[in-house]
Amino acid sequence: xxxxxxxxxxxxxxxxxxxxxxxxxxxxxxxxxxxxxxxxxxxxxxxxxxxxxxxxxxxxxxxxxxxxxxxxxxxxxxxxxxxxxxxxxxxxxxxxxxxxxxxxxxxxxxxxxxxxxxxxxxxxxxxxxxxxxxxxxxxxxxxxxxxxxxxxxxxxxxxxxxxxxxxxxxxxxxxxxxxxxxxxxxxxxxxxxxxxxxxxxxxxxxxxxxxxxxxxxxxxxxxxxxxxxxxxxxxxxxxxxxxxxxxxxxxxxxxxxxxxx
Length: 261
What we know:
By secondary structure, the protein is an all-alpha fold. The protein has one domain. Helix content is 79%, strand content 0%. It has nine helices and no strands. The longest helix has 35 residues, at 42-76. Mean pLDDT is 81; it is low at 1-15 and 106-112.
């Protein structure tokens, strides 16, 4: 064996970048995409919002069913489904208490108190950061799928929040600054998962299972109904194409990562 190693028959795989770098890059891209959504013109949003909502729904549901749930069930057994259900119910209760939902219709979003909206958004970003960190700690494949889902959902969510803040009378620059501030919660969530991951058994799998429940809640209750609510047949068709594109992107990301193993 030693001889073969000296001849180069057995080579060590190339060093992979550290996991925390993948996590940090994902959260930076997520923040930039979210803020960019708030700076898009109303005309562009009216034209493309339907497709963005569909894409987010497809990516979230595909990530939950194809990557998150299989990985957590493999690690935790049937208890993974209990944690997933807890995430689903927990997010429903949090949104009910905060009086806030994931807005997808731009300026037509229902009004809400800016403070309640920002608190809800911060909690959501905290969960996103924790989910991204847990996913990359489980495997690069799961991390990429969750990253795609989180980033895809960021545009319709932040555009809706931006519209509500503007409708409440907040100046454009202040609204963008407020949304940028709550984006920092994602880094807090990711940092918390990284800190506790080595101290508790299965904490990463539990966090990921809970995140899967939140993905199912957002995708199935907030976004998926939007596929059928378009005002015209063309708009509904665009939402369905966006939905299928979100599913395909996550499936391709998972397949490519599996093929590299």
